[in-house]
């Protein structure tokens, strides 16, 4: 029998109990994996995962000291980044660290591949000290334990990857553990290899980050737990147990993954396990290999933001395929959004939400969407106002309707002979606040409806100005006008339990728009309550979450600037805190930005939440001193050539450290195998090795074609509208 069967129930745990958990003494031994698995099988629950999931407050933690910086709940969230220079290039490394510090970094991580880099790190520290610059440095260690011992002399914190510190390079070998005790007994080797580093860090007053990566779980862990959040947590706990046995407590945890949903599940399970064990170690948050630009920021906001919304997280890094100093602004913005989430004002709004218990309807470590039915009134072969995988609704004004061809393009539609038709990333429906009277505007609306786009208009407006075939947005018991083809029910979160039950059972409603009264209620908590009641009452229709902002609330925190790249972070956090639980069926983002941006950002939120793919998914590492090619240049080149392949995932990895593991979730992989050379993967398997950099992108395209995943970019050209 495979040992993973023993912990099968752990992969679908769903309860979020709120009863207080008594803390055990810190010296209490770690309960064995097998014992805890057996206990959880009996309860089918992971327990409390945050301080209070109904009234947000920061999880109470111990304080970890990293040089002069303190990480923990008693201090502000710590901001960090990672250098991209070759650590052997001392001057370049020092200059980059100074730029990161100027941009707001509280600490900077550097790559330490071997003994040479470890020794040169001492020179980096000496130069910084000579300039009077005192910023904690973190050594990023993989594979090389001897280098880690030397690195302790120069670095304030050592990042250890449990997946390869003792078990070596990533493989996908499956180990049969006929006797689960065999798995437990192998911990002796891990303890032997890790103990010297822990003792040295304790002696020098250094900190450790036990940093699990989803993409680099060891073959041993993968064989026992499978590719799971549970495996990530147990991998870290083995190393934590060794630290505790040696009475070393100056460490933090991280549970990183390139998939924000998996990342959130792993952190929640880790936090729940800490409550269960009576532990209080801080959490370092991050979505690894998030990518660049808008997509990288969106993925980070979904994952990091969802955790910050529940008061989890003490230090964060936003991993972008950009120069490290550019990571600090989004990092700082997310930290500020986290402060907003646990502020007294938001806590009061959360407390205004009517009491509810969603422990049975909101699984916190699995992604299961509510089963819904798309009514024939909004979903046919010719007309689809919503999409099965997740919908995008877009607000459109009368002015927008005047620019017919321009609006089609902004809504992501193609045209043939001037007539619009839906494409893979077209808005599913538009939302109007008024029915226009202008002939050009009405013609645009008519053509959009003919193309299968839903037109949502408030019922009160339709009663005065009918629009045939519209979808009426109704409140409460409001009647549906005769001109409407269907009704969409607005839910504000202020409804009583009885009203939500009645709403769940309405047969005349095609879908709901969850539009939380954010002036008085916490969006996250009120929406969780609404979705809880929809699920508990077996509601059959989809529910779209409206994220509404005005010119003030769309700004960066603390009355910051109104900028798209910063708004992405707020939007991603607000939507991600609900989408990671599989609660929403789509988004209606209404904010003071242009139609095209709001549409593409909405699709980014859906794709980042692993709901609906409308473009190629890139898993792109942020670069570091190990990188064997120019990641930013190569990522841009690959994106330009392959960005039109929805449903295809391509991993772009600068080196082998996390490459094979992260590519287990990808269709194709592009990995630096040696200086100037690239290896190509299909799934987990290397299929071509040693390809010169200059030929590798062409080879990747050919590989995609060979595997029948390639489509040529659309050659349909839009034609100018010929007036009738």
UniProtKB/TrEMBL annotation:
Class of enzymatic activity (EC top level): oxidoreductase
Pathway note: Isoprenoid biosynthesis; isopentenyl diphosphate biosynthesis via DXP pathway; isopentenyl diphosphate from 1-deoxy-D-xylulose 5-phosphate: step 5/6
Cofactor(s) the protein requires to work: [4Fe-4S] cluster
Coiled-coil segments: none
Enzyme Commission code(s) on record: 1.17.7.1
Catalytic activity entry: (2E)-4-hydroxy-3-methylbut-2-enyl diphosphate + 2 oxidized [2Fe-2S]-[ferredoxin] + H2O = 2-C-methyl-D-erythritol 2,4-cyclic diphosphate + 2 reduced [2Fe-2S]-[ferredoxin] + H(+)
Domain spans labelled IspG TIM-barrel: 61-331
Record has Oxidoreductase as a keyword: yes
One BP term from GO: terpenoid biosynthetic process
GO MF entry, a single one: 4-hydroxy-3-methylbut-2-en-1-yl diphosphate synthase activity (ferredoxin)
Signal peptide start-end: 1-16
Keyword 4Fe-4S belongs to the record: yes
Occurrences of domain IspG C-terminal (ranges): 617-705
This protein's UniProt keywords: 4Fe-4S, Iron, Iron-sulfur, Isoprene biosynthesis, Metal-binding, Oxidoreductase, Signal
The organism's place on the tree of life at top rank: Eukaryota
SUPFAM superfamilies referenced in this protein's UniProt entry, alphabetically: Nitrite and sulphite reductase 4Fe-4S domain-like
Cross-referenced PANTHER family: 4-HYDROXY-3-METHYLBUT-2-EN-1-YL DIPHOSPHATE SYNTHASE, 4-HYDROXY-3-METHYLBUT-2-EN-1-YL DIPHOSPHATE SYNTHASE (FERREDOXIN), CHLOROPLASTIC
UniProt family annotation: Belongs to the IspG family.
Protein name: 4-hydroxy-3-methylbut-2-en-1-yl diphosphate synthase (ferredoxin), chloroplastic
């Amino acid at each position: 029998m495979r040992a993973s069967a023993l912990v099968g129930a752990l992969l679908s745990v769903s309860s979020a109990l709120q009863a207080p958990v008594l803390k055990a003494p810190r010296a209490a031994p770690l309960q064995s994996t097998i014992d805890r698995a057996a206990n959880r099988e009996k309860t089918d629950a992971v327990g409390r995962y945050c301080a209070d999931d109904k009234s947000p407050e920061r999880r109470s933690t111990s304080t970890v000291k990293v040089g002069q910086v303190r990480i923990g709940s008693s201090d502000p969230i710590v901001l960090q980044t990672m250098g991209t220079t070759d650590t052997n290039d001392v001057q370049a490394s020092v200059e980059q660290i100074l730029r990161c510090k100027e941009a707001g970094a509280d600490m900077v991580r550097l790559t330490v591949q071997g003994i040479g880099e470890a020794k040169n790190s001492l020179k980096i520290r000496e130069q910084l000290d000579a300039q009077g610059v005192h910023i904690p440095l973190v050594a990023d260690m993989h594979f090389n334990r001897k280098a880690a011992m030397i690195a302790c002399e120069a670095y304030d914190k050592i990042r250890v990857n449990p997946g390869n510190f003792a078990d070596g390079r990533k493989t996908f070998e499956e180990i049969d553990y006929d006797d689960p005790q065999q798995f437990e007994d192998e911990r002796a080797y891990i303890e032997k290899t890790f103990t010297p580093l822990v003792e040295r860090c304790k002696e020098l007053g250094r900190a450790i980050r036990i940093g699990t990566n989803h993409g680099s779980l060891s073959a041993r862990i993968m064989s026992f737990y499978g590719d799971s959040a549970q495996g990530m947590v147990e991998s870290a706990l083995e190393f934590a147990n060794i630290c505790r046995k040696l009475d070393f407590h100056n460490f933090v945890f991280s549970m990183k993954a390139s998939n924000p949903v998996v990342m959130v599940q792993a952190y929640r399970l880790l936090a729940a396990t800490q409550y269960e064990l009576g532990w209080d170690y801080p959490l370092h948050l991050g979505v690894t290999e998030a990518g660049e630009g808008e997509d990288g920021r969106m993925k980070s906001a979904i994952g990091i933001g969802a955790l910050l919304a529940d008061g989890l997280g003490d230090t964060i890094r936003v991993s972008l395929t950009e120069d490290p100093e550019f990571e600090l602004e989004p990092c700082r913005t997310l930290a500020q959004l986290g402060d907003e989430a646990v502020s007294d004002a938001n806590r009061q709004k959360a407390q205004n939400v009517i009491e509810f218990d969603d422990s049975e309807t909101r699984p916190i470590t699995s992604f299961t969407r509510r089963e819904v039915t798309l009514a024939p009134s909004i979903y046919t072969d010719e007309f689809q106002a919503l999409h099965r995988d997740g919908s995008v609704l877009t607000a459109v004004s009368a002015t927008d309707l005047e620019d017919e061809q321009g609006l089609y393009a902004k809504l992501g539609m193609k045209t043939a002979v001037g007539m619009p038709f839906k494409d893979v990333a077209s808005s599913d429906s538009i939302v109007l606040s008024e029915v226009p009277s202008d002939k050009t505007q009405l013609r645009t609306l008519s053509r959009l409806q003919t193309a299968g786009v839903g037109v949502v208009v408030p019922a009160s407006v339709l009663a005065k100005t009918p629009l045939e075939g519209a979808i009426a947005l109704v409140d409460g018991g409001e009647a549906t006008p005769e001109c409407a083809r269907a009704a969409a029910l607005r839910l504000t979160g202020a409804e009583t339990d009885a009203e939500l039950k009645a709403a769940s059972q309405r047969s005349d409603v095609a879908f709901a728009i969850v539009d939380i009264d954010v002036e008085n209620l916490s969006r996250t908590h009120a929406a969780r309550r609404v979705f809880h009641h929809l699920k508990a009452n077996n509601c059959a229709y989809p529910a779209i979450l409206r994220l509404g902002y005005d010119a003030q609330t769309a700004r960066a925190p603390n009355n910051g600037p109104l900028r798209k790249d910063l708004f992405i972070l707020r939007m991603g956090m607000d939507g991600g805190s609900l989408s990671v639980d599989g609660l929403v069926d789509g988004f209606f983002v209404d904010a003071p930005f242009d139609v095209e941006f709001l549409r593409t950002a909405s699709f980014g939120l859906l794709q980042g939440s692993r709901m609906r793919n409308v473009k190629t998914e890139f898993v792109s590492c942020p670069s570091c001193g190990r990188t064997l090619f120019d990641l930013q240049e190569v990522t841009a080149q690959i994106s330009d050539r392959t960005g039109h392949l929805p449903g295809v995932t391509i991993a772009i990895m600068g080196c082998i450290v996390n490459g094979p593991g992260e590519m287990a979730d990808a269709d194709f992989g592009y990995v630096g195998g040696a200086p100037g050379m690239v290896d190509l993967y299909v799934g987990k398997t290397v299929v071509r090795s040693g390809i010169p950099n200059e030929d590798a992108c062409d080879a990747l395209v050919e590989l995609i074609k060979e595997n029948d995943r390639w489509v040529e970019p659309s050659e349909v050209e839009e034609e100018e509208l010929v007036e009738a």
